[in-house]
Amino acid sequence: MALGVTALCCSVWCASAAAAADDADIEALLARMTLEEKAGQLNLYAPASGALSNPALHIRSLAEQEADIRAGRVTGLFNGAGQAAKRRAQQLAVRESRLGIPLLFAADVIHGFRTVFPVPLAEAASWDTDLAERTARAAALEAAADGFHWTFAPMVDIARDARWGRGVEGAGEDVLLARRLAQARVRGFQSGEGGLASTAKHFAAYGAAEGGLDYNSADLSPRTLREVYLPPFKAAVEAGAAAVMTSFNDVAGIPSNANRELLTGVLRDEWRFDGVVVSDYTADEELIAHGFAADGREAARLSFLAGVDMSMQSGLYLLHLPALVQGGEVPAARLDEAVRRVLRLKKRLGLFEQPFRGLEAPEPAARPEHRTLAREAARKSVVLLRNQGGLLPLPKAGLRIALIGPFADEADGGSAADLFGPWTLFPGRAAPVSLAQGLRDALSDPSTLKVVKGSGVNEPLPGGIAAAVSAARRADVVLLALGESAQMSGEARSRAGITLPAAQQALAEAVAATGKPVVVLLRNGRALALEGAVRDAQALLVTWFLGLETGHAVADVLFGDVSPSGRLPVSFPQAAGQVPYHYAHRRTGRPLPPQDPGSDFKTRYIETPNEALYPFGHGLTYGRFDYEALQLSHPRLPWGGTLQVKARITNRGAREAEETVQLYVHDRVASVTRPVRELKDFRKLRLAPGASAEVEFTLRSADLAFIGRDLQPVVEPGLFDVWVAPSATQGLRASFELAAP
Asked: Which residues contact 700 (CB under 8 A, 6 or more apart)?
């Protein structure tokens, strides 16, 4: 059946298409559908697994799945690699099923497809929304060319507990940065021809899991939910996200997948979202394990009535919705509404006109221009935390360098996955560049580089430390490649301790004892609590999981071809016992000791400072930036008016560098206690040595809103502090008054 194509327009979905619920073609198709066919449009499966089925895991055999497709009992498939199987499935859907409704092909395209870009948390360290949009666009083009239509990204969960492994998929701890990156990624995935429908996930408060334990309960106040965890989703919806995915957790005792207050009250009624709500993998069935539903039938009913349109993998909607509608337990109009949303998504993707989009040309390779983009993204994601004595950048000639650690050279018994990071599912990826290869390519004489593994990720190697110490003694400088493997971050990868594994820490201590200058290259998917020789190294670079161009990008920064420009999107704590930790904590009645160091009776730990080792927003460059001459356009911000905040930034270093200038505010007195600082804006500027620039921010009264006692946004007049700063704990400070209306 041919329905008219409504293509993606500009950078977001066309508003007219999103409102076309009464489209005559869709209504005519709905009128022809049986209850089972309607339920089938709400039933999403992973690809079949050969000749065998596994009912316990809801895995269908190929014969069973093909029969389902012919009968119209499947709306689409997800994470199926390659074109051939997708082409076969689409042929069955459009040529052999009764109504010929095309399938949707979805995938977890999280940080690239053929070309693997830095993990989202790393990319967030760039504080570059244009970069995030471009990498999402590149990933969409590659995935669409393989026949995919829909991605389960971006993840927009706020993550303030470093123990939680899925923080690697998001933008970190701050609401403003997360909102802007959510919108950029939605625009990138959905823009232009060949884009993918995007999905904001996981709705909601998934990152607030107690103890940082994945899938755990999130027991938080309605105010915190609305002020911290919901805004990135609202931003994604405003940017035109095609879908929203539910989370696995419960929120204050109500599982998200059955939370009508969130899925219908907030998402539909307040935000007017008209796209598809899809469950996460078997999240509807997990209502039974939660103790919220007695059986699959009740789980399907509760999920569907709460507002979940599409069930992923469990098959519960297909199994139970027809009978629930026939029995009057689910309104027929609610079923039609959900099916209408799915059909509209397929129409907006052009699938009724071009069901074989991306399946007719040969399977593509990674694009060369995307490799260039991957190197740019990786460079911009590196954060320089420490550079004692100006050790970096290193010269490309005249030094003997020892590269030591479990991540020194993935080409020598290591894993490419540890370069890519978690959530790289698909075959055909371009081969990544290891640290060793990147350094050899950059050095004038590659023979001056000595590579020694020294230890495994979690276990010591026989003779490993002795070999590492020997190499360090013969070197002029040591590069320690330490951190987490890809299997230590991501889904179901919570860590009770966020320090380096003992084997790596022992390696670092032994190498540091040689007295040679040490540069730590930290590979990680979360903030870590650094200890001993790692914490005290002369130079410390956070390199995250940088993807395809890891080695070249790190070499570019180490040798000064580019100045590091990344800024932390998460606070690094002094000790693991501080987490959950974030900079925007509320004021207490007994403030932190730095405000009153003479008293023991303050908010503090007895054995460590209650402050970040490296705060949110921190990052060094090879320049030296001075902040001067903070000025406000007026001491009072008129109600409904604007206030200009200016400062002069000067690069007094010897190298050109890029600085991220940050604007923070604090509400001194309010009807609800307020954070000590909140990020309100930021600017990136590049300055030559000796050059200055005036940075200007505009504050409006709406920027000072917070969630009031009635859980509605409110702006209150009064005194505010404002900082123009290089991080969340530094900067120039001034004060202004917000006038009463």
From this structure: 637, 641, 642, 643
The Cβ-side half-sphere exposure at 425, using a 13 Å CA radius, reads: 15
What SS3 class is residue 211?
Answer: helix
Within 512-594, strands assigned E span: 518-523, 539-542, 572-573
Q: Domain 623-738 adopts which CATH fold?
A: Immunoglobulin-like (2.60.40)
Q: How many CA atoms lie within 13 A of 63 on its CB side?
A: 3
Q: Residue 143: enclosing H or E segment and its boundaries? A: helix 129-144
Q: In which residue are the tokens 């998504």 written?
A: 345
Q: How far apart are CA 666 and CA 224, in angstroms?
A: 17
Query: Domain locations in the chain?
Result: 15-101+198-348, 373-562, 623-738
Q: Kindly list the catalytic residues.
A: 280
* Nearest residue to 58 via CA among 291, 319, 295, 242: 319
Instruction: Name the E strands within 484-538.
Output: 518-523
Q: Please state, in angstroms and rounded to a whole number, the distance separating the CA atoms of residues 233 and 239.
A: 10
CA–CA gap between residue 506 and residue 464 (Å, rounded): 11
CB 632 within 8 A of CB 539: no
Assign a CATH topology to domain 15-101+198-348: TIM Barrel (3.20.20)
Q: Which tokens in the block code for residue 321?
A: 């919705």
Q: Mean pLDDT of residues grouped by 10 in the chain (741 residues)? A: 37 42 84 98 90 73 94 96 93 98 98 97 98 97 95 98 98 98 98 91 98 97 98 98 98 98 98 98 98 98 98 97 98 98 97 94 83 98 98 98 95 79 91 96 98 97 98 98 97 97 98 98 98 98 98 98 98 96 93 62 85 97 98 96 98 97 98 97 98 98 97 97 98 98 93
Virtual CA dihedral for 539, 545, 550, 556, nearest 10 degrees? -30
Distance (Å, rounded) from C-alpha 725 to C-alpha 567? Answer: 12
Residue with tokens 């990008």: 553
Distances 248 to 216, 232, 504, 689, 729 between C-alpha atoms, Å: 8, 18, 34, 50, 34
Rounded to two decimals, what is the model's pTM? 0.96
**156 — phi, psi (to 5°)?**
-120, 20
Q: Name 433's Cβ contacts closer than 8 Å, sequence gap at least 6.
A: 419, 441, 548, 549, 550, 551, 552
Question: Reading across the β-sheet that carries 243-246, which strands appear in turn?
Answer: 199-203, 243-246, 276-278
Apex 678 CA angle, 673 and 680, nearest 5: 135
pLDDT for the residue 610: 87
Q: Which residues pair with 403 in a beta bridge?
A: 451, 479
Give the architecture-level CATH label for domain 373-562. Answer: 3-Layer(aba) Sandwich (3.40)
Structure tokens at 462: 């026989």
Q: How far is CA 559 from the centre of its chain?
A: 29
Residue 459 CA to residue 7 CA, distance in Å, equals: 53
- Angle at Cα 725 formed by Cα 724 and Cα 728, nearest 5°? 120
